[in-house]
Write a structure and sequence with these properties.
Collagenase (Catalytic Domain); alpha/beta; binds zinc ion; eight-stranded mixed sheet; about 300 residues; disordered N terminus; two-stranded parallel sheet; globular
């Protein structure tokens, strides 16, 4: 599987390609997105601010989701879509991480409830003449072949299609102008789960991974993959830097860059049965996109407070 960060030169959109093979390909040129990391709680100095921070931590962000299924032969059962979105919610509620499966040294970093929820707003299904889609995601969102995004900038559009050679893609924050009709995440139909998926992407975790990208998470080795070395990382403190992204089911204790690799992270490309955790740092980074002024703040439909 290649892991490609692609810049579509004309539209300045960064798309992460998250494949499932072990093949490697060369990397295209990349542009590092400018990011400001707003970490809730970084600056608290007074009781008032501490209270505000506590409130921020308890805010649950509700994000509406539009699922666009582009198919050639048969539409997707709505129950499969609903169970996939339910699974996404379960992961973001911290319900899918079994601490027993997390290596001891990483348990303290487990995110728990990320307090992001995804509500299924609309399902659109449309037949296409295309057998599959390759690198150009714009084809998927063109009305000629697929389904244009609904309410770009306000609703998270998820396209389920047959991707040639890929498991999924996502547009990274800040690089797709808000009015662009391709902004969202793309997953291969075979990955739709949690129990309907097939092969090594059979638990519905590809969507989790792509949603992570959409909300500003990199793969753990950082920006340049698959040969990032140790000089780049994912800009998250509590994910140990690793030299390369992992595939398959790595041996326990696999290490690089002077520490054990957290290959069991959702932002890795290991088998679905091996991807099991987000960290607190990743949680903070995703949520920072949703606070007022954040790069994904426009996607928050409503908030609630949960202690
Ligand atoms: Zn990825």
């Amino acid at each position: 599987m290649k892991n490609t960060l692609r810049i579509l030169a004309l539209s300045f959109i960064m798309v992460f390609s998250c494949n499932s093979n072990d093949d490697t390909t060369s990397e295209d040129e990349q542009t590092v997105p400018e990011e400001e990391e707003v970490m809730p709680g970084d600056e608290e100095t007074t009781p008032d601010e501490e209270e505000e921070t506590l409130m921020l931590e308890n805010v649950v962000y509700n994000i509406p989701v539009v699922v666009n299924v582009v198919y050639k032969i048969s539409p997707l059962e709505e129950t499969a879509i609903e169970s996939q979105i339910q699974f996404l919610n379960d992961v973001f509620a911290g319900k899918e991480t079994n601490m027993d499966d997390v290596p001891e040294q990483f348990r303290a970093a487990v995110a728990g409830d990320i307090k992001m929820r995804f509500s299924l707003d609309t399902i659109l299904q449309r037949q296409t003449t295309r057998d599959n889609f390759r690198d150009d995601r714009q084809e998927i969102a063109k009305s000629e072949f697929g389904i244009p995004a609904t309410d770009t900038g306000r609703k998270l559009n998820i396209w389920i299609v047959v991707l040639a050679g890929d498991s999924g893609d996502a547009t990274f924050p800040g690089l797709a102008p808000e009015d662009l009709f391709i902004e969202g995440v793309y997953i291969d139909r075979s990955t739709v789960g949690p129990r309907n998926g097939i092969g090594i992407r059979n638990e519905g975790k590809q969507l989790v991974h792509e949603v992570g990208h959409f909300f500003n998470l990199y793969h753990l080795p950082g920006l340049i993959e698959p040969t990032s070395g140790c000089e780049f990382d994912d800009e998250v403190e509590d994910t140990p830097n690793s030299a390369e992204i992992h595939f398959g089911r790595p041996e326990p204790g696999t290490s690089s860059c002077g520490s054990q690799d957290m290959f069991m992270n959702f932002m890795e490309n290991v088998h679905d049965d091996t991807r099991i955790m987000f960290t607190k740092g990743q949680k903070a980074r995703m949520r920072a996109t949703l606070v007022e002024g954040g790069v994904r703040a426009s996607y928050v439909e409503s908030t609630s407070i949960e202690n």
